[in-house]
Amino acid sequence: MAKKSKNIEMITGDPKKAIVKLALPMMLSMLLIMLYNLADSIWVAGLGADALAAIGFITPLFMVLIGLGNGIGAGANSLIARNIGAGNYKEANNSGLHGILLSVIISVIFTILIEGFMVPILEFMGAGNTIQYAMDYSYIIFGFLFIFVYSGVASAIFRSEGDMRRATIAIAVTAILNIILDPIFIYVLDLGISGAAWATVISASMSCIVMSYWIWGKKDLYLDLSPKNFSYSNQIMLDTLQVAIPSTLENVVFSALAIIINSMLVIAAGTTAVAVYTASMRIVQLTMIPLLGLGTAVLTVAGVAYGAHNHVNLKTAHSYSIKLGFAISILLGAIMFIFSKQIATVFSYTAASASLSGDIATALSILTLFVIAVPHGMMSSMMFQGVGKGVYSLLITLLRSLILETVFAYLFCFVFGWGLIGIYAGIVFGCFVGGTVGYLWAKLFIKRFREISIRKYAPQKD
Protein backbone atom coordinates (compact mmCIF):
# COMPACT_ATOMS: atom_id res chain seq x y z
CA MET A 1 0.00 0.00 0.00
CA ALA A 2 1.38 3.37 -1.03
CA LYS A 3 1.53 6.17 1.50
CA LYS A 4 -1.34 8.60 1.15
CA SER A 5 -0.29 11.83 -0.53
CA LYS A 6 -1.71 15.30 0.01
CA ASN A 7 -3.73 14.80 -3.17
CA ILE A 8 -5.39 11.67 -1.77
CA GLU A 9 -6.10 13.39 1.54
CA MET A 10 -7.63 16.27 -0.41
CA ILE A 11 -10.08 14.19 -2.50
CA THR A 12 -11.16 12.15 0.53
CA GLY A 13 -11.68 15.26 2.71
CA ASP A 14 -13.97 18.31 2.44
CA PRO A 15 -15.79 17.99 -0.93
CA LYS A 16 -16.11 21.78 -1.35
CA LYS A 17 -12.37 22.33 -0.99
CA ALA A 18 -11.65 19.29 -3.17
CA ILE A 19 -13.92 20.54 -5.97
CA VAL A 20 -12.29 23.98 -6.00
CA LYS A 21 -8.74 22.58 -5.87
CA LEU A 22 -9.49 20.06 -8.61
CA ALA A 23 -11.58 22.39 -10.76
CA LEU A 24 -9.22 25.37 -10.97
CA PRO A 25 -6.33 23.49 -12.66
CA MET A 26 -8.87 21.66 -14.82
CA MET A 27 -10.33 24.98 -15.91
CA LEU A 28 -6.86 26.13 -16.91
CA SER A 29 -6.32 22.88 -18.81
CA MET A 30 -9.58 23.20 -20.67
CA LEU A 31 -8.96 26.88 -21.34
CA LEU A 32 -5.73 25.91 -23.05
CA ILE A 33 -7.51 23.17 -25.02
CA MET A 34 -10.22 25.58 -26.12
CA LEU A 35 -7.64 28.22 -26.99
CA TYR A 36 -5.81 25.94 -29.37
CA ASN A 37 -9.13 24.81 -30.87
CA LEU A 38 -10.02 28.47 -31.21
CA ALA A 39 -6.61 29.12 -32.74
CA ASP A 40 -7.35 26.43 -35.34
CA SER A 41 -10.62 28.16 -36.25
CA ILE A 42 -9.10 31.65 -36.33
CA TRP A 43 -6.14 30.66 -38.51
CA VAL A 44 -8.32 28.46 -40.76
CA ALA A 45 -10.86 31.31 -41.08
CA GLY A 46 -8.18 33.18 -43.00
CA LEU A 47 -8.48 30.53 -45.72
CA GLY A 48 -12.12 31.51 -46.30
CA ALA A 49 -15.67 30.47 -45.34
CA ASP A 50 -15.41 27.04 -47.03
CA ALA A 51 -12.36 26.07 -44.98
CA LEU A 52 -14.02 27.24 -41.74
CA ALA A 53 -17.22 25.38 -42.63
CA ALA A 54 -15.11 22.25 -43.25
CA ILE A 55 -13.87 22.48 -39.66
CA GLY A 56 -17.53 22.73 -38.66
CA PHE A 57 -18.32 19.48 -40.46
CA ILE A 58 -15.29 17.71 -38.98
CA THR A 59 -15.87 18.98 -35.44
CA PRO A 60 -18.68 16.47 -34.71
CA LEU A 61 -16.43 13.61 -35.79
CA PHE A 62 -13.53 15.03 -33.83
CA MET A 63 -15.79 15.16 -30.78
CA VAL A 64 -16.32 11.41 -31.21
CA LEU A 65 -12.54 10.97 -31.42
CA ILE A 66 -11.95 12.98 -28.25
CA GLY A 67 -14.92 11.21 -26.68
CA LEU A 68 -13.23 7.83 -27.12
CA GLY A 69 -10.30 8.87 -24.96
CA ASN A 70 -12.38 10.87 -22.52
CA GLY A 71 -14.95 8.09 -22.25
CA ILE A 72 -12.40 5.43 -21.36
CA GLY A 73 -10.71 8.01 -19.14
CA ALA A 74 -13.99 8.75 -17.35
CA GLY A 75 -14.53 5.02 -16.80
CA ALA A 76 -11.02 4.56 -15.41
CA ASN A 77 -11.27 7.77 -13.36
CA SER A 78 -14.56 6.69 -11.81
CA LEU A 79 -13.37 3.17 -10.98
CA ILE A 80 -9.98 4.29 -9.63
CA ALA A 81 -11.65 6.98 -7.48
CA ARG A 82 -14.18 4.50 -6.10
CA ASN A 83 -11.39 2.06 -5.24
CA ILE A 84 -9.38 4.83 -3.57
CA GLY A 85 -12.47 5.77 -1.56
CA ALA A 86 -12.92 2.13 -0.54
CA GLY A 87 -9.21 1.83 0.37
CA ASN A 88 -8.52 -0.81 -2.30
CA TYR A 89 -5.08 0.20 -3.61
CA LYS A 90 -4.45 -3.00 -5.61
CA GLU A 91 -7.68 -2.67 -7.57
CA ALA A 92 -7.02 1.03 -8.16
CA ASN A 93 -3.70 0.17 -9.85
CA ASN A 94 -5.24 -2.60 -11.92
CA SER A 95 -8.10 -0.33 -12.98
CA GLY A 96 -5.63 2.23 -14.35
CA LEU A 97 -3.78 -0.43 -16.35
CA HIS A 98 -7.04 -1.76 -17.79
CA GLY A 99 -7.90 1.76 -18.93
CA ILE A 100 -4.62 1.97 -20.86
CA LEU A 101 -5.24 -1.44 -22.44
CA LEU A 102 -8.68 -0.32 -23.54
CA SER A 103 -7.19 2.80 -25.15
CA VAL A 104 -5.02 0.62 -27.38
CA ILE A 105 -7.83 -1.75 -28.41
CA ILE A 106 -10.43 0.94 -29.08
CA SER A 107 -8.13 3.27 -31.02
CA VAL A 108 -7.05 0.52 -33.43
CA ILE A 109 -10.64 -0.50 -34.17
CA PHE A 110 -11.97 3.02 -34.70
CA THR A 111 -9.01 4.22 -36.76
CA ILE A 112 -9.79 1.51 -39.32
CA LEU A 113 -13.53 2.23 -39.30
CA ILE A 114 -13.37 6.03 -39.54
CA GLU A 115 -10.59 6.15 -42.14
CA GLY A 116 -12.42 3.60 -44.30
CA PHE A 117 -15.75 5.41 -44.34
CA MET A 118 -14.63 9.06 -44.24
CA VAL A 119 -15.91 10.10 -47.68
CA PRO A 120 -19.46 8.68 -47.35
CA ILE A 121 -19.70 10.15 -43.83
CA LEU A 122 -18.82 13.63 -45.10
CA GLU A 123 -21.20 13.28 -48.04
CA PHE A 124 -23.99 12.22 -45.68
CA MET A 125 -23.30 15.28 -43.52
CA GLY A 126 -23.76 17.53 -46.55
CA ALA A 127 -20.20 18.84 -46.75
CA GLY A 128 -20.81 19.76 -50.42
CA ASN A 129 -18.17 22.07 -51.88
CA THR A 130 -16.21 21.98 -48.61
CA ILE A 131 -15.55 18.23 -48.81
CA GLN A 132 -11.96 18.49 -50.10
CA TYR A 133 -11.02 20.78 -47.22
CA ALA A 134 -12.71 18.38 -44.81
CA MET A 135 -10.90 15.35 -46.22
CA ASP A 136 -7.50 17.07 -46.13
CA TYR A 137 -8.01 17.78 -42.43
CA SER A 138 -9.77 14.61 -41.31
CA TYR A 139 -7.51 11.93 -42.81
CA ILE A 140 -4.57 13.25 -40.82
CA ILE A 141 -6.44 13.78 -37.54
CA PHE A 142 -8.19 10.41 -37.54
CA GLY A 143 -5.11 8.60 -38.79
CA PHE A 144 -3.43 9.34 -35.45
CA LEU A 145 -6.40 8.43 -33.28
CA PHE A 146 -4.35 6.54 -30.67
CA ILE A 147 -2.52 9.71 -29.65
CA PHE A 148 -5.76 11.43 -28.67
CA VAL A 149 -7.35 8.38 -27.03
CA TYR A 150 -4.28 7.56 -24.94
CA SER A 151 -3.84 11.20 -23.95
CA GLY A 152 -7.39 11.30 -22.60
CA VAL A 153 -6.91 8.13 -20.55
CA ALA A 154 -3.50 9.11 -19.15
CA SER A 155 -4.79 12.54 -18.13
CA ALA A 156 -7.77 10.91 -16.38
CA ILE A 157 -5.43 8.66 -14.39
CA PHE A 158 -3.67 11.72 -12.97
CA ARG A 159 -7.01 13.36 -12.18
CA SER A 160 -8.33 10.24 -10.43
CA GLU A 161 -5.71 10.59 -7.70
CA GLY A 162 -6.08 14.36 -7.50
CA ASP A 163 -2.83 15.17 -9.32
CA MET A 164 -4.11 18.11 -11.33
CA ARG A 165 -0.76 19.90 -11.54
CA ARG A 166 0.84 17.42 -13.90
CA ALA A 167 -2.36 16.79 -15.83
CA THR A 168 -2.44 20.54 -16.47
CA ILE A 169 1.23 20.74 -17.44
CA ALA A 170 0.80 17.99 -20.04
CA ILE A 171 -2.17 19.77 -21.59
CA ALA A 172 -0.31 23.09 -21.50
CA VAL A 173 2.50 21.54 -23.54
CA THR A 174 -0.04 20.45 -26.17
CA ALA A 175 -1.94 23.73 -26.31
CA ILE A 176 1.01 26.13 -26.39
CA LEU A 177 2.86 24.08 -28.99
CA ASN A 178 -0.27 23.85 -31.15
CA ILE A 179 -0.86 27.60 -31.03
CA ILE A 180 2.75 28.18 -32.10
CA LEU A 181 2.73 25.57 -34.87
CA ASP A 182 -0.65 26.48 -36.42
CA PRO A 183 0.38 29.62 -38.38
CA ILE A 184 3.74 28.06 -39.27
CA PHE A 185 2.21 24.92 -40.78
CA ILE A 186 -0.82 26.64 -42.35
CA TYR A 187 0.83 29.72 -43.87
CA VAL A 188 4.62 29.64 -43.62
CA LEU A 189 4.89 26.06 -44.88
CA ASP A 190 1.82 26.69 -47.05
CA LEU A 191 0.10 23.44 -46.03
CA GLY A 192 -3.29 25.10 -45.67
CA ILE A 193 -5.92 23.21 -43.67
CA SER A 194 -3.70 20.11 -43.62
CA GLY A 195 -1.16 22.17 -41.70
CA ALA A 196 -3.71 22.76 -38.93
CA ALA A 197 -4.19 19.01 -38.65
CA TRP A 198 -0.44 18.27 -38.49
CA ALA A 199 0.05 20.96 -35.84
CA THR A 200 -2.65 19.31 -33.70
CA VAL A 201 -1.18 15.81 -34.08
CA ILE A 202 2.41 16.85 -33.31
CA SER A 203 1.44 18.89 -30.23
CA ALA A 204 -0.78 16.09 -28.84
CA SER A 205 2.09 13.62 -29.28
CA MET A 206 4.27 15.70 -26.97
CA SER A 207 1.63 15.48 -24.24
CA CYS A 208 1.64 11.68 -24.51
CA ILE A 209 5.42 11.55 -24.21
CA VAL A 210 5.44 13.76 -21.11
CA MET A 211 2.75 11.78 -19.29
CA SER A 212 4.30 8.42 -20.19
CA TYR A 213 7.58 9.57 -18.67
CA TRP A 214 5.86 10.48 -15.40
CA ILE A 215 4.00 7.15 -15.25
CA TRP A 216 6.76 4.72 -16.23
CA GLY A 217 9.95 6.77 -16.08
CA LYS A 218 9.75 8.88 -12.96
CA LYS A 219 7.25 6.54 -11.22
CA ASP A 220 6.18 8.90 -8.45
CA LEU A 221 2.39 8.66 -8.73
CA TYR A 222 0.26 7.43 -5.83
CA LEU A 223 -0.78 4.66 -8.21
CA ASP A 224 1.77 2.11 -9.37
CA LEU A 225 1.10 1.29 -13.03
CA SER A 226 3.99 -1.13 -13.48
CA PRO A 227 3.10 -4.07 -15.75
CA LYS A 228 3.62 -6.42 -12.77
CA ASN A 229 0.45 -4.98 -11.20
CA PHE A 230 -1.69 -5.92 -14.20
CA SER A 231 -4.01 -8.88 -13.77
CA TYR A 232 -6.64 -9.16 -16.46
CA SER A 233 -10.16 -9.00 -15.09
CA ASN A 234 -13.41 -9.17 -17.01
CA GLN A 235 -15.11 -7.44 -14.09
CA ILE A 236 -12.75 -4.44 -14.22
CA MET A 237 -13.25 -4.22 -17.98
CA LEU A 238 -17.01 -4.34 -17.47
CA ASP A 239 -16.96 -1.77 -14.65
CA THR A 240 -14.82 0.59 -16.74
CA LEU A 241 -16.99 0.15 -19.84
CA GLN A 242 -20.18 0.79 -17.84
CA VAL A 243 -19.01 4.39 -17.60
CA ALA A 244 -16.77 4.53 -20.69
CA ILE A 245 -19.37 3.41 -23.24
CA PRO A 246 -22.16 5.76 -22.09
CA SER A 247 -19.64 8.60 -21.73
CA THR A 248 -18.34 7.99 -25.25
CA LEU A 249 -21.88 7.71 -26.58
CA GLU A 250 -22.63 11.09 -25.01
CA ASN A 251 -20.01 12.56 -27.29
CA VAL A 252 -21.60 10.68 -30.18
CA VAL A 253 -24.90 12.28 -29.16
CA PHE A 254 -23.28 15.72 -29.20
CA SER A 255 -21.82 14.92 -32.61
CA ALA A 256 -25.18 13.72 -33.90
CA LEU A 257 -26.76 16.90 -32.56
CA ALA A 258 -24.14 19.00 -34.37
CA ILE A 259 -24.78 17.09 -37.61
CA ILE A 260 -28.55 17.63 -37.28
CA ILE A 261 -28.15 21.31 -36.39
CA ASN A 262 -25.72 21.78 -39.30
CA SER A 263 -28.28 20.20 -41.63
CA MET A 264 -30.99 22.54 -40.37
CA LEU A 265 -28.66 25.50 -40.83
CA VAL A 266 -27.85 24.48 -44.41
CA ILE A 267 -31.56 24.14 -45.22
CA ALA A 268 -32.41 27.44 -43.56
CA ALA A 269 -29.54 29.59 -44.85
CA GLY A 270 -26.83 27.59 -46.66
CA THR A 271 -23.29 26.54 -45.68
CA THR A 272 -22.37 30.06 -44.59
CA ALA A 273 -24.74 29.56 -41.63
CA VAL A 274 -22.64 26.55 -40.62
CA ALA A 275 -19.54 28.73 -40.62
CA VAL A 276 -21.33 31.28 -38.41
CA TYR A 277 -22.57 28.61 -36.00
CA THR A 278 -19.12 26.96 -35.87
CA ALA A 279 -17.44 30.21 -34.94
CA SER A 280 -20.14 31.08 -32.38
CA MET A 281 -19.99 27.68 -30.67
CA ARG A 282 -16.22 27.99 -30.35
CA ILE A 283 -16.81 31.04 -28.18
CA VAL A 284 -19.64 29.34 -26.26
CA GLN A 285 -17.36 26.37 -25.57
CA LEU A 286 -14.73 28.77 -24.30
CA THR A 287 -17.16 30.24 -21.75
CA MET A 288 -18.17 26.74 -20.64
CA ILE A 289 -14.64 25.85 -19.53
CA PRO A 290 -15.33 26.56 -15.84
CA LEU A 291 -18.40 24.32 -15.96
CA LEU A 292 -16.44 21.50 -17.60
CA GLY A 293 -13.74 21.92 -14.96
CA LEU A 294 -16.31 21.72 -12.18
CA GLY A 295 -17.92 18.67 -13.77
CA THR A 296 -14.61 16.83 -14.02
CA ALA A 297 -13.91 17.61 -10.36
CA VAL A 298 -17.36 16.33 -9.39
CA LEU A 299 -16.65 13.03 -11.17
CA THR A 300 -13.61 12.34 -8.98
CA VAL A 301 -15.07 13.63 -5.70
CA ALA A 302 -18.38 11.82 -6.25
CA GLY A 303 -16.53 8.58 -7.05
CA VAL A 304 -14.48 8.76 -3.85
CA ALA A 305 -17.58 9.61 -1.75
CA TYR A 306 -19.58 6.77 -3.31
CA GLY A 307 -16.78 4.26 -2.78
CA ALA A 308 -16.52 5.33 0.87
CA HIS A 309 -20.34 5.18 1.28
CA ASN A 310 -20.30 8.86 2.31
CA HIS A 311 -23.73 10.21 1.32
CA VAL A 312 -23.06 13.60 2.94
CA ASN A 313 -20.03 14.30 0.74
CA LEU A 314 -21.89 13.10 -2.35
CA LYS A 315 -24.81 15.47 -1.70
CA THR A 316 -22.49 18.36 -0.89
CA ALA A 317 -20.41 17.84 -4.05
CA HIS A 318 -23.50 17.83 -6.26
CA SER A 319 -25.24 20.85 -4.70
CA TYR A 320 -22.13 22.99 -4.28
CA SER A 321 -20.95 22.46 -7.86
CA ILE A 322 -24.34 23.53 -9.24
CA LYS A 323 -24.46 26.72 -7.15
CA LEU A 324 -20.92 27.59 -8.15
CA GLY A 325 -21.66 26.69 -11.77
CA PHE A 326 -24.67 29.01 -12.01
CA ALA A 327 -22.75 31.91 -10.48
CA ILE A 328 -19.90 31.51 -12.96
CA SER A 329 -22.11 30.94 -16.01
CA ILE A 330 -24.21 34.06 -15.32
CA LEU A 331 -21.06 36.17 -15.11
CA LEU A 332 -19.51 34.74 -18.29
CA GLY A 333 -22.81 34.83 -20.16
CA ALA A 334 -23.16 38.53 -19.39
CA ILE A 335 -19.64 39.21 -20.66
CA MET A 336 -20.29 37.26 -23.87
CA PHE A 337 -23.52 39.19 -24.49
CA ILE A 338 -22.06 42.63 -23.83
CA PHE A 339 -19.01 42.09 -26.04
CA SER A 340 -20.63 39.92 -28.75
CA LYS A 341 -19.82 42.39 -31.56
CA GLN A 342 -16.19 42.74 -30.54
CA ILE A 343 -15.78 38.97 -30.20
CA ALA A 344 -17.29 38.41 -33.65
CA THR A 345 -14.57 40.50 -35.32
CA VAL A 346 -11.98 37.86 -34.30
CA PHE A 347 -13.43 35.61 -37.01
CA SER A 348 -13.70 38.29 -39.68
CA TYR A 349 -10.18 39.63 -40.01
CA THR A 350 -9.79 38.88 -43.74
CA ALA A 351 -11.77 39.90 -46.83
CA ALA A 352 -12.88 36.26 -47.26
CA SER A 353 -14.56 36.16 -43.83
CA ALA A 354 -15.50 39.82 -43.19
CA SER A 355 -19.16 39.23 -44.07
CA LEU A 356 -19.58 36.81 -41.14
CA SER A 357 -19.16 39.39 -38.36
CA GLY A 358 -22.76 40.58 -37.96
CA ASP A 359 -24.26 37.10 -38.10
CA ILE A 360 -21.77 35.77 -35.53
CA ALA A 361 -22.61 38.63 -33.16
CA THR A 362 -26.34 37.85 -33.45
CA ALA A 363 -25.77 34.16 -32.78
CA LEU A 364 -23.60 34.92 -29.75
CA SER A 365 -26.18 37.25 -28.21
CA ILE A 366 -28.74 34.40 -28.18
CA LEU A 367 -26.42 31.52 -27.32
CA THR A 368 -25.37 33.45 -24.20
CA LEU A 369 -28.44 31.89 -22.59
CA PHE A 370 -27.17 28.42 -23.45
CA VAL A 371 -24.26 28.87 -21.05
CA ILE A 372 -26.68 29.72 -18.23
CA ALA A 373 -28.95 26.74 -19.06
CA VAL A 374 -26.18 24.15 -18.66
CA PRO A 375 -24.91 23.86 -15.00
CA HIS A 376 -27.61 21.82 -13.22
CA GLY A 377 -27.82 19.22 -15.98
CA MET A 378 -24.07 18.92 -16.50
CA MET A 379 -23.21 18.50 -12.80
CA SER A 380 -25.91 15.87 -12.42
CA SER A 381 -24.56 13.90 -15.38
CA MET A 382 -20.99 14.07 -14.07
CA MET A 383 -22.12 12.96 -10.62
CA PHE A 384 -23.74 9.89 -12.18
CA GLN A 385 -20.52 9.10 -14.06
CA GLY A 386 -18.55 9.40 -10.82
CA VAL A 387 -20.69 6.84 -9.00
CA GLY A 388 -20.48 4.42 -11.93
CA LYS A 389 -23.97 5.05 -13.33
CA GLY A 390 -22.86 6.00 -16.80
CA VAL A 391 -26.14 4.91 -18.40
CA TYR A 392 -28.05 7.44 -16.28
CA SER A 393 -25.74 10.19 -17.51
CA LEU A 394 -26.23 9.04 -21.11
CA LEU A 395 -30.02 9.08 -20.77
CA ILE A 396 -29.92 12.66 -19.49
CA THR A 397 -27.76 13.69 -22.45
CA LEU A 398 -30.01 11.87 -24.93
CA LEU A 399 -33.08 13.63 -23.58
CA ARG A 400 -31.45 17.05 -23.34
CA SER A 401 -29.47 17.16 -26.58
CA LEU A 402 -30.62 14.66 -29.16
CA ILE A 403 -34.32 14.89 -28.36
CA LEU A 404 -35.28 18.21 -26.77
CA GLU A 405 -32.70 20.52 -28.37
CA THR A 406 -33.34 19.01 -31.80
CA VAL A 407 -37.13 19.06 -31.49
CA PHE A 408 -37.33 22.62 -30.22
CA ALA A 409 -34.80 23.87 -32.80
CA TYR A 410 -36.93 22.33 -35.57
CA LEU A 411 -40.19 23.68 -34.13
CA PHE A 412 -38.92 27.20 -33.58
CA CYS A 413 -37.18 27.41 -36.97
CA PHE A 414 -39.50 25.66 -39.41
CA VAL A 415 -42.90 25.36 -37.69
CA PHE A 416 -42.95 28.76 -35.97
CA GLY A 417 -40.99 30.33 -38.83
CA TRP A 418 -38.31 32.00 -36.70
CA GLY A 419 -35.49 30.97 -39.07
CA LEU A 420 -31.91 30.89 -37.73
CA ILE A 421 -32.98 32.65 -34.53
CA GLY A 422 -35.37 29.77 -33.91
CA ILE A 423 -32.59 27.20 -34.18
CA TYR A 424 -30.49 29.03 -31.60
CA ALA A 425 -33.47 29.53 -29.27
CA GLY A 426 -34.50 25.88 -29.56
CA ILE A 427 -31.03 24.73 -28.53
CA VAL A 428 -31.16 26.94 -25.42
CA PHE A 429 -34.67 25.93 -24.36
CA GLY A 430 -34.13 22.21 -24.94
CA CYS A 431 -30.92 22.30 -22.91
CA PHE A 432 -32.62 23.92 -19.92
CA VAL A 433 -35.62 21.57 -19.85
CA GLY A 434 -33.49 18.44 -20.25
CA GLY A 435 -31.02 19.61 -17.61
CA THR A 436 -33.86 20.18 -15.14
CA VAL A 437 -35.04 16.59 -15.56
CA GLY A 438 -31.48 15.36 -14.95
CA TYR A 439 -31.16 17.50 -11.82
CA LEU A 440 -34.35 16.10 -10.28
CA TRP A 441 -33.22 12.55 -11.08
CA ALA A 442 -29.84 13.16 -9.40
CA LYS A 443 -31.50 14.53 -6.24
CA LEU A 444 -33.70 11.43 -6.04
CA PHE A 445 -30.66 9.14 -6.49
CA ILE A 446 -28.74 10.89 -3.70
CA LYS A 447 -31.76 10.61 -1.38
CA ARG A 448 -32.00 6.87 -1.98
CA PHE A 449 -28.23 6.44 -1.57
CA ARG A 450 -28.47 8.20 1.78
CA GLU A 451 -31.21 5.86 2.95
CA ILE A 452 -29.20 2.79 1.89
CA SER A 453 -26.00 4.08 3.50
CA ILE A 454 -27.71 4.81 6.80
CA ARG A 455 -29.43 1.42 6.83
CA LYS A 456 -26.32 -0.60 5.93
CA TYR A 457 -23.41 1.30 7.44
CA ALA A 458 -24.78 3.20 10.47
CA PRO A 459 -23.55 1.82 13.83
CA GLN A 460 -25.92 -0.82 15.17
CA LYS A 461 -27.34 -0.44 18.70
CA ASP A 462 -27.70 -3.44 20.98
Give an account of the 3D structure.
- This protein has 462 residues and is an all-alpha fold.
- It is 84% helix and 0% strand.
- It has 18 helices and no strands.
- It is globular.
* SSE arrangement, N to C: HHHHHHHHHHHHHHHHHH
Beta content comes to under 5%
Q: What integer value in Å does the Rg equal?
A: 22 Å
Q: Quote the distance from N terminus to C terminus.
A: 35 Å
> What does the average pLDDT come to?
86
Number of strands: 0
**Fraction of helical residues:** over 70%
- Unreliable residue runs: none
Q: Give the overall shape, derived from the CA principal axes.
A: globular
- Give the helix tally: 18
Structural class: mainly alpha
Largest sheet: none
What secondary-structure arrangement, pairings included, does this model have?
Layout: H1 6-11, H2 15-45, H3 49-85, H4 89-116, H5 118-124, H6 131-143, H7 145-160, H8 164-188, H9 193-218, H10 234-269, H11 271-287, H12 289-307, H13 311-338, H14 340-344, H15 357-373, H16 375-386, H17 390-415, H18 420-457
Helix pairs in contact: 2-8, 2-11, 2-12, 3-4, 3-6, 3-7, 3-10, 3-11, 3-12, 4-7, 5-6, 6-9, 7-8, 7-9, 8-9, 10-11, 10-17, 11-15, 12-13, 12-16, 13-15, 13-16, 13-18, 15-18, 16-17, 16-18, 17-18
Summarize the structure.
It is built from 18 helices and no strands. By secondary structure, it is mainly alpha-helical.
